[in-house]
Amino acid sequence: MRTQVCIIGGGPSGLLLSQLLHRKGIDTVVLERHSREHVLSRIRAGVLEWGTVELLREAGVGERMDREGLPHLGVNLALQNRAFRIDFQKLVGKKVMVYGQTEVTHDLYAARDAIGGKVICEAEGVTLHDLDTDAPFVTFVKDGSEQRIDADYVVGCDGFHGVSRRSIPADTLREYEKVYPFGWLGVLSRTPPVHDELIYANHPRGFALCSMRNRNLSRYYIQVPLDTKLEDWPDEAFWEELKRRIPTDAAERLVTGPSIEKSIAPLRSYVAEPMRWGRLMLCGDAAHIVPPTGAKGLNLAASDVHYAYHALADHYLEGDDEGLERYSERALARVWKAMRFSWSFTMLMHRFPDQSPFEQRMQEAELEVLESSRAAQTVMAENYVGLPY
Ligand code: FAS
Ligand code: PHB
């Protein structure tokens, strides 16, 4: 088999890139390790930057998002049993869209099917070859038989545990990492959200987040120690702890119900450089991981896809290779700024195991500066809604 761009990974990055390139007449094949059902069973991100919204619309997958998504004009930060609002519209004239990653991925698979996109699921043993030549190829096993795809370019959209980043020679790859000493326990419940916007809460007992997927599907998180097991947190215990960490007025409004999904996610900040080596380009979690505090993971994947899409389209349609040559530089410039915001917001909102009372007060003072300073709120708003591409 031969294609122009072989994409490894059928998550949001890989599907979005293949859809955008296909609509420009550029041939792609997506190789996904798992079944489509497995990919669609994951509950992950919930907030889309407007840049992501516009890219999804450009890919022709914005219709259900525009119909069912919830535009949010602000976000709420809570401390010491009170909350204050960061007004995106007033401060920076922008907004975000609340629409789950699961729905985005579902819409992308449907769009790939609708225009005959080639997505090969349950592709096992994907291996990348000759990336440092002008004739790279990929091998994999499908239904027990070895297959080969020759391509001009390979784009690794295969997430943190994928094969692509590991195909860059160790003496070329530079890695930067910070692992946080806690995780997030997340619950999805068929209950109305506690508020019509998100609430991020700093509390001496630990961080909490009140989010949503729609007006009858809520997503909540509480910070938990790294050694936490799901069985430590029956629903009743989760709801009681969440109520202790959010302001009383919200806790009194909280509608609880059975969890329909419950999971624990570890938190890390991670960046791999470069994001291009030879004919291999990396997009999304294959190249970087952010703590979900700033809702940047999926959105950084989208901006990587934006740069990769334009670089490849310029190459094939205009014969212009500047985008390819500068892909890693351009993508990383935005990655590092989002990495900073996600790290900074995580450090501000979470309780660290060895945190002193003084440090708790410093976090609260930082939040009080945010509460009272339009300038500080503007910086927060600029980063939360997404810096320009
Ligand atoms: P993905 O990991 O989504 O997709 C990679 C795909 O490649 C997967 O389908 C995988 O099966 C496939 N793959 C892997 N290895 C392969 C191989 N060798 N061959 C073929 N295919 C292979 N972000 C937020 O903004 N907010 C959140 O709340 C949030 N919560 C998260 C919770 C968890 C548990 C995790 C893991 C991530 C979370 N994220 C969140 C980040 C997440 O949304 C990612 O940023 C997003 O999925 C990135 O998309 P992709 O780059 O496509 O990677
Ligand atoms: C979510 O709704 O899953 C969500 C929202 C905002 C975040 C993280 C997760 O920062």
CATH-defined topology of the largest domain: FAD/NAD(P)-binding domain
Strand content: 25-35%
N-to-C CA distance: 34 Å
CATH architecture of the largest domain: 3-Layer(bba) Sandwich
The largest sheet, given as strand count, sense and whether it forms a barrel, is:
8 strands, mixed
The averaged pLDDT comes out at: 97
What gross morphology would you assign? globular
Q: Which consecutive residue ranges, at least 5 long each, have pLDDT under 50?
A: none
Percent helix: 25-40%
DSSP helical segment count? 13
- Rg is 21 Å
Structural class: alpha+beta
Report on this structure.
The model has no long low-confidence stretch (mean pLDDT 97). α1 (12-22) runs parallel beside α6 (101-114). This protein has helices at residues 12-22, 36-40, 50-58, 63-68, 88-92, 101-114, 235-245, 248-253, 297-318, 322-325, 327-349, 357-372, 374-385; strands at residues 5-8, 28-31, 47-49, 70-72, 74-79, 82-87, 96-98, 118-120, 124-129, 137-142, 145-150, 153-156, 174-189, 199-201, 208-214, 217-224, 259-273, 276-277, 280-282, 288-289. It is built from 13 helices and 20 strands. The longest helix is centred in the C-terminal third of the chain and has 23 residues, at 327-349. Bound molecules: arabino-flavin-adenine dinucleotide and P-hydroxybenzoic acid (PHB). Residues 45-47, 198, 211, 219, 292-293, 295 line the site of P-hydroxybenzoic acid. This is p-hydroxybenzoate 3-monooxygenase. One of its GO terms (biological process) is benzoate catabolic process.
